[in-house]
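Q: Sequence in, structure out?
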Amino acid sequence: MGTKISHSGIVESISDGCVQVRILQTSACAACKVAGHCHASESKEKIVDVQNVRDAARLKVGDSVTVCASRDVANKALLLGFGLPFLILVSVLLIALKLFSDEGMAALTALSALVPYYGILYLLRDRIQQRMAFSIE
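A: Exactly. Output:
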């Protein structure tokens, strides 16, 4: 297992040290020989913003590049996007089930507990973006 996650892509736009790269994100089974006959394989186009590119002047729209991120960045993104919300949801649900006799109210309480979490993530998006940056090789 490598220490970097990389995707090849095409430069879509360049502005003020920010390069937008279009990548094709594929599932693990998309490379399988029978992927065309199976509905489990999928692929999606995504636009990735690469901030603070030192040599952005050498790049042109349409150039083929490789976008990289460290495994640490990927793990932090998974933790913030899935791990912590899941823990908040389950813990608030268990507490609410003890406090309320109505399961519907407990479920709504657990779901509403995620609103402040995602609000905080939104407010801290610039700081998170600086720490979880992509690079171009």
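The longest helix spans residues 71-99.
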